[in-house]
């Protein structure tokens, strides 16, 4: 029996597990069954909070995509984890530091009750994405019948490619997303964002996530799109990015500082799942 809480942030939905009060070391197959929308609970990602033994780190935070793979970053998930930590009475500190497999995140509870996360500094360097191409300001790859796509790349603890489009409504998100993910130039696959810049403070974004397909929102994807747009001078230091599931707020005041991500997050229900039921 596994106790869990179902949460969502702008429709990016999670099964969240307290790995401190119950053992949780899932196999990829168990994650896939839990995340299945017909045979399981259903979610884009499974998240788990564990105790930390490292000074300066309040909690360890594990992230599993719906396909069963553990990954290193989930921006919306980190905001859900903070809310979960407060709701479960694990801490009431306004500021929390959590560590994932690849990133350290600083979370802050705002007066409104929302949680803002400092996602750290983005990296644009190909080896850090990882992307097996020489460094340049914009990249290009042929995708067969889909034509050639131009994109920027960012790592925020996980890999992102960002394609700037005229209209997100017309973008071939699934087809291009899948094709780019399969390119050998991305040895760890990639999350693919389609960004429409509306104004210096507003954008629209759809993301085809690695291990989950198109989601209603992607926090690290929003940060990645904002980072690419900001670097090219198209966006101001604060902006709102509208995703199919709702708006996320982004800030990046100083290139040496981290990108901040804010937005709503809520608990939907809690339950018990029968691993072998
Ligand atoms: N939804 C997430 C990102 C989850 C992980 C991603 N699919 C990956 O494989 O890196 C977010 O809000 O950042």
TrEMBL record:
It catalyses: (2S,6S)-2,6-diaminopimelate = meso-2,6-diaminopimelate. The keyword Isomerase applies. It is found in: Cytoplasm. One of its GO terms (biological process) is lysine biosynthetic process via diaminopimelate. Its EC number is 5.1.1.7. Its main location: cytoplasm. Keywords: Amino-acid biosynthesis, Cytoplasm, Isomerase, Lysine biosynthesis. Substrate binds at residues 12, 45, 65, 75-76, 158, 191, 209-210, 219-220. The keyword Cell membrane does not apply. It comes from the Bacteria. Homodimer. HAMAP family: DAP_epimerase. Belongs to the diaminopimelate epimerase family. Catalyzes the stereoinversion of LL-2,6-diaminopimelate (L,L-DAP) to meso-diaminopimelate (meso-DAP), a precursor of L-lysine and an essential component of the bacterial peptidoglycan. This is Diaminopimelate epimerase. It comes from Deinococcus ruber.
């Amino acid at each position: 029996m596994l106790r869990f809480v179902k949460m969502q942030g702008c429709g990016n939905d999670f099964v969240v597990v307290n790995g401190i009060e119950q053992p949780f070391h899932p196999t990829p197959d168990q994650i896939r069954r839990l995340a299945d929308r017909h045979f399981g609970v259903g979610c884009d990602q499974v998240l788990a909070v564990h105790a930390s033994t490292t000074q300066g780190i309040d909690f360890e935070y594990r992230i599993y995509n719906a396909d069963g793979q553990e990954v290193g970053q989930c921006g919306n998930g980190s905001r859900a984890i903070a809310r979960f930590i407060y709701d479960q009475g694990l801490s009431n500190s306004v500021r929390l530091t959590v560590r994932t497999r690849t990133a350290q995140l600083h979370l802050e509870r705002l007066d409104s009750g929302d949680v803002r996360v400092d996602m750290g500094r983005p990296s644009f360097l190909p080896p850090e994405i990882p992307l097996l191409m020489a460094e340049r300001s914009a990249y290009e790859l042929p995708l067969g019948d889909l034509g050639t796509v131009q994109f920027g790349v960012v790592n925020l603890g996980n890999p992102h490619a960002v394609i700037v489009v005229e209209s997100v409504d017309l973008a071939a998100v699934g087809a291009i997303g899948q094709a780019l993910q399969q390119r050998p130039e991305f040895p760890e696959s990639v999350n693919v964002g389609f960004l429409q810049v509306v104004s210096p403070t507003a954008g629209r974004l759809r993301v085809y996530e690695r291990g989950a397909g198109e989601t209603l929102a992607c926090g690290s994807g929003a940060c990645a799109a904002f980072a690419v747009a900001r670097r090219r001078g198209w966006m101001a230091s604060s902006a709102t990015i509208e995703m199919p599931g709702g708006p996320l707020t982004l800030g990046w005041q100083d290139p040496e500082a981290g990108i901040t991500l804010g937005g709503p997050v809520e608990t939907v229900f809690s339950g018990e799942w029968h691993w072998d039921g």
